Amino acid sequence: MKSVDVFLAERHRMVEGQISRRGLHDPRLLAAFEEVPRHLFVPVESRAAAYNDTPLAIGFGQTISQPYIVALMTSLMELQGDERVLEVGTGSGYQAAILARLAGEVHTVEILPELAAPAALLLQELHCDNVHVHEGDGSIGWPEAAPYVGIIVTAASPAVPQPLLTQLADGGRLVVPVESRAGYQLLMLLRLGGGEITEQVVASVCFVPLRGAYGWGRGR
Ligand code: SAH
Asked: In the predicted model, what is the mean pLDDT of residues 5-20?
């Protein structure tokens, strides 16, 4: 087992070599990645690889995203610190722990109870008290706490889930990977301003499928 110091050093290398070097320099964003112990969000047998430049399996066919992709998606939300935000696809809880440091209140929805429960426990242990983990189909959003200034979807959908747009505050941002019929995925940034939605393609990405009513349904 590696010591805490080794993980600290690896984390610093991750921030410099994977995030900062690729052009993300916001000090608050980088500080969040320096602080969150990513190795606790991966299975014990993968801890040595926790700070590698790759996604990792977290069980049940799901993955924790590559650190840079978590950073890129987070940066697109341009958080100032007091916003209420929604994440769809809690998975390990890592993205939620990052958001906890950059936003005021985080709601995160996970469809698999086997992942929602341990993620909630870990986030509690790490004192991420502004994170609320909900079990359910996040493709319909989480209307109870809407509207959100930022919404981030960490699974790929066949189209932008419409309920998420209705839960966006004016001036809000939605970051979502959308899969084309040809099978490739594009990370989209949608902005709501004065009742109008503007769309921007940000990057080519690779995510697990979004299930549920506004995702791929039960299959896939
Ligand atoms: N953000 C996660 C990565 C998640 S992988 C992290 O930081 O670790 C995508 C997750 O989305 C998986 O856990 C999957 O079970 C979940 N998911 C898929 N469809 C969903 C849906 N409709 N609602 C909520 N979660 C969903």
From this structure: 95
pLDDT level of residue 182 (50, 70, 90 thresholds): confident
Per residue in 114-136, pLDDT (tens digit) is 999 999 999 999 999 999 999 99
Tokens 């998975």, residue located: 91
Residue 144: which pLDDT band, with cuts at 50, 70 and 90?
very high
Distance between Cα 154 and ligand 1 center (Å): 6
Task: Tell whether ligand 1 has an atom less than 6 A from the beta carbon of residue 88.
Answer: yes
Pocket test for ligand 1, best of 154, 167, 175 (most atoms within 8 A of CB): 154
Q: Is 46 a catalytic residue?
A: no
Count the neighbouring beta carbons within 10 Å of the beta carbon of residue 124. Answer: 13
What does the pLDDT read at residue 108?
A: 98
Which residue's alpha carbon is at the smallest distance from atom 16 of ligand 1? Answer: 89
